[in-house]
Amino acid sequence: MDEPEPGPRPGFSRAAVTVLAVTAVVAVALDQWVKWLSTENLTEGEPVRILGGLIYLSLLRNSGAAFSFGSGYTWVFPVITLVVIGWITYMATKLRSLPWAVALGLVLGGALGNLGDRLFRAPSPFHGHVVDMFSLFGPYAEYFAVFNIADACLSVGVVLAVLLELTGRQRDGSRLVRKKAEKK
């Protein structure tokens, strides 16, 4: 049986919220910089092979999610992103855990990075196509979806959040402890 440690602390920690914010800002800045570099230096249809073909830099504009899933419903992605941003903002009001701050900051930064594309890139607001550029093992998503820094931040943030949940670490800084079954 799982029980929280005695006395979880209420409220938020300034340090945790600062880590969340800084992580998100760095993720967005890096994502937007790499997208700018890609649109300025790569040409669609002309992938660049690096690391012996482990990675290809392939400039693509994606109207959907991974593997262009949902490309006919581009407007849905900004709406989902706004819900995620609202949820993370709510979670920040109780945040006291630095590892959770990093996880939520990565998710927030990734969400904001792709939201910027959806809002401000062609063809139109709320229908913008996300700039993707990293393809693993093949130039055009033959083995894995073509992705960008925002996608990577989202993925790493979600994996970190799942690991934190599985290990019992709570957003308020407490930790679930397993009670050993009593022997009869």
From TrEMBL:
Membrane topology classification: Multi-pass membrane protein
Active site annotation, chain numbering: D132, D151
Subcellular location: Cell membrane
Catalysed transformations (reactions): Release of signal peptides from bacterial membrane prolipoproteins. Hydrolyzes -Xaa-Yaa-Zaa-|-(S,diacylglyceryl)Cys-, in which Xaa is hydrophobic (preferably Leu), and Yaa (Ala or Ser) and Zaa (Gly or Ala) have small, neutral side chains
Annotated TM spans: 12-30, 75-93, 100-120, 140-166
Chief location of this protein within or outside the cell: membrane
Keywords: Aspartyl protease, Cell membrane, Hydrolase, Membrane, Protease, Transmembrane, Transmembrane helix
Family recorded in the similarity comment: Belongs to the peptidase A8 family.
Protein's name in the database: Lipoprotein signal peptidase
Species per Swiss-Prot/TrEMBL record: Paractinoplanes deccanensis
Taxonomic lineage of the native organism: Bacteria, Bacillati, Actinomycetota, Actinomycetes, Micromonosporales
